[in-house]
Structures are given as structure tokens and as C-alpha cells.
Amino acid sequence: MLRLSKLTDYAVVVMARLARDGALPHGQVQTAPGLALATGIAEPTVAKVLKILGQAGLVEGLRGARGGYRLTRPLAAVPLSEVIVAIDGPIALTACVDGGQGQCEAQGICAVRGRWDPVNDAIRRALSDITLADLAGPTRCAPATHFAQLVAE
Amino acid sequence: MLRLSKLTDYAVVVMARLARDGALPHGQVQTAPGLALATGIAEPTVAKVLKILGQAGLVEGLRGARGGYRLTRPLAAVPLSEVIVAIDGPIALTACVDGGQGQCEAQGICAVRGRWDPVNDAIRRALSDITLADLAGPTRCAPATHFAQLVAE
DNA sequence: TTCAAAGAGGACCCATACGGTCCTATTTAG
DNA sequence: CTAAATAGGACCGTATGGGTCCTCTTTGAA
User: Three-class SS of residue A94?
Assistant: First the structure.
């Protein structure tokens, strides 16, 4: 089954939740424990995902008390491919295209050598054309600057 | 790293080799040991791949002495997606789209529920538009009905 | 008629990768 | 000064899949 890792799935859910709760660029922040509660994902896992997303620059972490995370870009500006690369690493369907380092032992007789590139490009293109906004759908709630929105959870 | 299984990679190589050596529909057959030698892939692994491809109807196995395998369709009529499905199973990037059976524990609060379908469709479309002929490249040798072609290997 | 060569169909083992957890250090608001 | 939160690791158990092997069936040829 060609599938992406669970962590990537979690990352999409978490980022969608950040947007929904108003943790937009230069907005308020959302804590990892809070996101865990809101998404139903275990808290250490949420923390791990957010740390990785932070290293990739997709979210911004504010340390200290009253710290938390917020997006660095609106969801519509984040292609899905970028999240996958951040969590899973480069998108390359076969090992033999990862640069010249891992020399394939059968390269002398391999009939398809170098021909996977169009396939990888097609996949990357498909995943780049979809943004997290497409996955998250319309934000049902206005940015939760209203207290009523918060307690309604 | 979003990648397909090694077995799928092997399958493409083996099928490309079948075509190259003239094991076309209604043509001569090619044995698993012979293909292993020709491709550099271990013989039990080649046999395993061919058995799976046979179940999927992508190759035809002829039993008995002088038996072997041949393609059931020319490479240009085999989309890459079909090989991936045969070896890896259905193409679905996340678990939550595999029908209703594996109910996601967070389905009540999941913000992206049901929105992965366009992503999966895009991937499937990209992989369906590429045929094995694209991956194998031009067949350098004419179908090996000439004995000279065979011994030249 | 017998034998050898080849596919069909499983069962099985093991290494790797990944999910998941936890620990410690650092930062910062109150 | 303390509590709350992120940052950055280390660590472990399990599940998946790659790879091998064994047995049975089929079939051409001696």
C-alpha cells in the first residue's frame, strides 16, 4: 500500500487545527497539550510533530510560559508536498534516484535506470498543487478571538 | 520518504526485461532463473514477483518443462498504477479512506475527514498516465526470434 | 514410462523503520 | 523564584515487508 506515514497525517490535522483556532501568522498561539486534546492525538506525538514542523519553518514555536505554536503561513500557502517532505523526507519513489550515493548493484544491467524521474516529478507536481487549505476545508469558525468560541469546545 | 516497495521496483524491471527478450503476448516465454540472471535480482525474489504478477493477470505463467513467463499485454498497455496495485495493494495515502472498516478513533473531531480523496485521486491519475513503456524506454532489440540475439546476451 | 525442469502456492524468519514515549535543558511570563 | 511551555535528544517495542525455502503440480523430452 503506497501510503504516507502516520506522522504526516497527524501534521496535517494539527496544522488544520492551528488555523481553525486562530493560530495564524502573527496571531495567538496554541499549546501542544491543547492541540492534543482538541485533535485526539496523544500529547507526546503532537509535540514531536510540532517540533519537526518547527524545524521545517512551517510553524513557529514560542517558548516559555504562555508559549505555544502558530502557523508561519496561511494554509492556502502551504502545499501538501512541503509537509510530506518535512516529516517523511524527500519524495522519491525508488531508492536509485537519491543522488549517486547509493549505487545500485544492478546498474550495469538495469533497464529502467534513470527513467523514474518523470514519475517522481508527476507525483511531486500532484502533491504541490494541493494545499492544506484544500485538505482542511472552509474554516467554520472565525478566528477564536471571541471567548464564546473557545468555551464552546 | 514516500516510496513504493522494492518488490514493485523489481516488478517493473522484470516486466521490462520480459518485453525486451521477446516474451510478448503469445510469444516465447522466459524462465524465472533466466530473468534473475539477466536482471541481477535474486532468483527466489524474481519468482515471487512473477507469481504475484501472474495472479494479477499482468504476466502469464506456463508450467512444466520449457515453461516460463510472458506478458499478457504490451508494455504500452500497462499503466504503472496497475503494477503498484498488484504488488503493494490499493493506492491510498492514508488509512482512513480504506472503506469504513478501520474506523478512525478521532473521527468525531478530525478536521480533515473525507478530504484526502482528491489527493488520492491525483496520485492515481498521475500513476495511471505513465505506462511501463515509458519506464522501459525504446526496446533496443527486435523480438529475439533470431538465435544470434539470444547468444549475444 | 520415467525423469527433469519449471511454475504455484504457501510458510517462515529476520532486519529495518517507524510510531510512540520519556528525559533533560532552556526559555519566559507572572 | 516558580511554573509552564518549547527544544532537542535518546530510547524501545512492534509491525511491516524483503527475502528464503519447502512442497506440490504440471509438462516436455529421453
Answer: coil
